[in-house]
Design brief:
The complex is a heterodimer. Chain A is an alpha+beta fold. Chain A is built from seven helices and 14 strands. In chain A, strands 1, 2, 3, 4, 5, 6 and 7 form a seven-stranded mixed sheet that branches. In chain A, helix 4 runs antiparallel to helix 5. Chain A is globular. By secondary structure, chain B is an alpha+beta fold. Chain B contains two helices and three strands; from the N terminus they run E-H-E-H-E. The chains are: A alpha+beta, B alpha+beta.
């Protein structure tokens, strides 16, 4: 199967954690085992929007118990005899092969997934900066010849791109190195933040220059954080920035003589 | 009708809590990272070819670029 597969390099591999749990979009060809009226097929596929129950397939890397997955949208693009082309936006961990099989069961005819292309993984889509392996090999050798950094920038994006969909919290310089050492974020460090944060929301902490510092789980809502003057407002989950990038500005207790 | 909004359609607004400036002597804008760091903190939006596994594709990228480590975000079956 083909499509969007973000590949993170070296220190950026820490951000794949954020991508694994992000929503996906696919374009899929479903093959019906019997020809059926178009309306019936469209109706049944439409029912697979919203929350669905799904048992992971036999060949799966997770425990095979029924789970609830969100299908954000499912749009039939074309039906040609037994082939059904559709686009689906879904939660991470939805098995499209299984969805196709289940659609076949509901229709009574049976069906299977014939072809699949991922068109979105979190903020990455197949339009824009997508490159093939051939592009990577070609552009890399061209860069080695010319040493022109703009060639590398054409296909290697800053890891911050992967964090685009997370609600962000910007912090002042003086808070950065403490966060890099694993500290939780407290209210005085916050400069600005996005709406929609609740207690338990996965967020990303950025510097004022836009560099990602850490992934964190908020412990208060956007409005609460705005009003707070002290106390922890987000728990540090994963540090992304190396220690020492910003100066250490916090005080340590002097050991007693 | 779909009842659940896809995460990429959610609109957010940035609210300011306090004013602050950043010291240009430390760090740098993500899009201006110099050479070794732009690789270290880089991510590629790759169009996976059919055939090899996601894991193999990530390993190829690692070999082509000569980096120490590369990981993919979400398995896309072969």
């Amino acid at each position: 199967m083909t499509g969007v597969l973000p590949v993170a390099l070296e220190d950026a591999t820490k951000v794949v954690h954020a991508l694994l749990g992000s929503g996906k979009e696919y374009v899929c060809v479903l093959k019906l085992h019997k020809e059926l009226p178009e309306n019936r097929v469209k109706d049944v596929l439409g029912e697979f929007q919203g929350k669905i129950f799904q048992r992971p397939p036999i060949r799966a890397s997770v425990k095979r118990q029924i789970r609830v997955r969100k299908i954000y949208y499912l749009e039939v693009l074309e039906i040609d005899e037994r082939n059904v082309l559709f686009k689906v936006g879904c939660e991470a961990g939805t098995y499209i092969r299984k969805l196709c099989y289940d659609v076949g069961e509901v229709l009574g005819s049976g069906a299977h997934m014939h072809e699949l292309r991922r068109t979105r993984s979190g903020p990455f889509t197949e339009t824009g900066d997508i490159v093939t392996l051939h592009d990577v090999a070609y552009l890399h050798s061209k860069w080695q010849e010319t040493q022109d950094l703009s060639i590398l920038r054409k296909f290697i994006q800053p890891m911050e791109e992967a964090l685009e969909l997370l609600p962000k919290i910007d912090v002042r310089d003086s808070a950065v190195d403490a966060l890099c050492h694993g500290a939780h974020l407290t209210a005085p460090g916050v400069v600005s933040l996005e709406t929609g944060i609740e207690a338990g929301t996965k967020t990303c902490i950025f510097t004022l220059k836009g560099e990602a510092v850490a992934l964190a789980t908020a412990t208060a809502t956007t409005q609460e954080i705005l009003k707070k003057n002290h106390g922890i407002i987000a728990r540090n989950d994963r540090v992304l920035m190396p220690r020492g990038t910003y100066p250490k500005l916090w005080h340590t207790k002097q050991p007693k003589p | 009708m779909p009842s659940i909004l896809a995460p990429w359609t959610v609109k957010r607004e940035l609210l300011t809590k306090s004013e602050a400036e950043t010291d240009l002597n430390y760090g740098c804008k993500p899009e201006e990272r110099p050479y070794p760091n732009m690789l270290r903190f880089g991510i590629i939006n790759l169009d996976k070819p059919p055939g090899p596994s996601s894991h193999e594709v990530a390993a190829w990228v690692r070999r082509i670029l000569g980096v120490k480590q590369a990981g993919h975000g979400g398995t896309l079956e072969t």
